[in-house]
Structure to design on (142 residues):
């Protein structure tokens, strides 16, 4: 998967730096969604000279190119990241622990969104994060 993403970046005229390659490889190796700090910690295992600013700068570029998704956890000032999948999907985010999980389908009707937006607005995409509490956090609150 990483080589497919790297080739897509090359096709879009993006230079493939060692830092960008490392970020993509780290994201591909995670089962869950890492924070920027967790990405940096993994990169430091091979290259201790990379800084957090470099990681954020590259994450922002890769987000703008549609290669990475950013998931926000409200109330925790926390953002986690994932490689953008071929299949469009959304996320369930726990407000207690910040865990995010994929909702592997899209519950949004594009025609309804376009009707609400009006004829003058061209929709090119959407993102949905559904917030609540996971079973562990609900049990801990009892």
């Amino acid at each position: 998967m990483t080589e497919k993403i790297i080739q897509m970046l090359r096709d879009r005229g993006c230079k493939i730096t060692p830092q960008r390659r490392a970020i993509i490889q780290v994201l591909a190796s995670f089962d869950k969604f890492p924070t920027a700090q967790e990405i940096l910690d993994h990169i430091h295992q091979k290259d201790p000279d990379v800084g957090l600013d470099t990681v954020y700068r590259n994450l922002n570029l890769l987000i703008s190119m549609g290669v990475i998704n950013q998931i926000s956890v409200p109330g925790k000032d926390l953002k986690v990241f994932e490689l953008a999948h071929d299949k469009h999907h959304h996320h369930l985010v726990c407000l207690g622990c910040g865990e995010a999980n994929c909702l592997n389908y899209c519950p949004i009707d594009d025609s309804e969104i376009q009707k609400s937006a009006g004829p003058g607005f061209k929709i090119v995409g959407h993102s949905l994060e559904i917030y609540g509490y996971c079973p562990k956090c609900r049990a801990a609150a009892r």
User: Anything to note?
Assistant: The chain has six helices and five strands. Residues 52-64 form the longest helix (13 residues). Strands lie at 68-73, 78-83, 90-94, 100-103, 129-132. The chain has a mean pLDDT of 90.
